[in-house]
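Quick one: histidine kinase from Candidatus Vagococcus giribetii, C-alpha cells please.
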Amino acid sequence: MAKRSSKQFGVLAIKSKDKSQTYNRIRLTSKEKSELLIEGLVTIILLILLNLAMYMILVQIIQTSVSLESFTNRFMPSIYDAFYSPRAMIWKKPIFALMAVLDIAILYWRLIRRYKQMQQRHIISELHYISSGHYDHRIPFDLGGDLGKLIRSINALVDSTVEAIEEERRIEQSKDELITNVSHDIRTPLTSIIGYLGLIEERQYSSEEELLKYTHTAYLKSKQMKLLVDDLFEYTKVRQSNTPINLVTFDMQQLIAQVVVDFELDAQKKEVTIDFEPSPPSLLMSGDTEKLVRVFDNLLSNAIKYGTDGTQIIVISEKKENEVIITVKNDGKEIPKKSLDLLFDRFYRVEESRSQQTGGTGLGLAITQSIVDLHHGQIYATSEKGWTSFIIHLPLEQPNHSNN
Ligand code: ATP
Ligand code: MG
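--- reply ---
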C-alpha cells in the first residue's frame, strides 16, 4: 500500500501512530489555494456586474419616474435636491456602501462554503485511508464546530472498533492456547496409559505383581486425565459471566472451619499445622456455598502442596464494613515476583511445580478467580517475608438474591 505523506493530505505536522498524536489545522494544498483564489475572483467579477446592473436599474427607475420627481419637487425639496438635481450625488453614497457590505458578505460566505467543502474532502480522504487498513491512524485535524465534533466521533468510533477487533483476536488466540494446553496435558497421561496397556496386551510382564503395577499406573494416569477433564469442564462453566449461581445465606466462618477440618489429615501427613482465626466467630453472608468450598479447597490444597519447607498454614477471616476479607497464607519458599501476576492464568504453574508429581492441572486458581468474580469479589496473591498469602475480598450481600 502506498505510503501516505502529510503533504498529500495537507496536514501541517507529522502524524504519530499512537493516540497521543498531535492534532493540526488543515493546510490547503496549492491546488486548493488556486481553486479558492479562482472562486474569489469569479465571485468578485459576478458581484461587480451585478452591482452595475442594479445601479443602472436604480438610476433608470429614479430618473424615469416622472410622478415621483414632480411629487418630491413640490413637497420634499430636500429629497428632490438629493436625487434629481444634477449636482446632487448624496444618495449614491449609502447605496454604494450597502452594496459593498453585501458584496463582502457574499464573498465571505462563498469562500467559507468552499473552504468547508475542502475540509470535508480532507476528512473523507482520511477516512478512506483508515478504511484501507490503517487502523492505527486517526484523523489528525483540530477543527471547531460540527466538523470538529464529527472528527472526534469518527476517531472514537475507530478506537472502539479497533479495541473490539483486538479483543476478538485475543479471545481467538486464548482459545487456540487452551486447545494446545489441553491436548498437551491429555496426551501426556494418555501416552503412558497406552504404553502400559500395550505392555499388558503383549504380555510383557514377568509376574502378576508386575501386571498389577502396570494396571495401577494406568489407573492413576486415567484418574489424572479425569481430573483435568473435570477441572476443564468446571473452568469453562464458571468462566461464563451468565453462569447461574445458587445464592443462599450461610455462615462463612462455619464453611471455612469445615474445609479446614477436611484438610487436617493431609496437613498432618506433611507435618503442617492449620490455624483458623475467624473474626467475628460467626458471619452470615450470601453466596454459592458449593462454589466457595471449591475456592478454599484449592487454596488449602495449594498451601499444603506447594508450601515448600513450610510448617504453618493460617486462615484469617475478618469482617470489614460490607465485606469479608479472607487470607489463606502459608510459610515456606516464596513465589518469585514475576510469577505472582501469572498465578491466576489458566494452566500456569510455577516452574518447579510442573515437574513435581504433586503438580495439578494449573486450572485451580483460574477457577478460584472466576468463582470470586461471580461473587463480585477480588482475589490477589502476595509472597514476601517467608509468607505466601492469597487474599480474597467478598461482599457480604450479593446484588441479586435469586438464582441468576
Ligand atoms: P489444580 O489446582 O488445578 O490441581 P495447580 O494447583 O497446579 O492445579 P493452581 O491451583 O492454579 O494449579 O496453582 C497454580 C500454580 O501456582 C501452582 O502450580 C503452584 O506453582 C503455584 N502456587 C499456588 N499456590 C501456591 C502456594 N501457596 N505456594 C506456592 N506456590 C503456589
Ligand atoms: Mg491448585
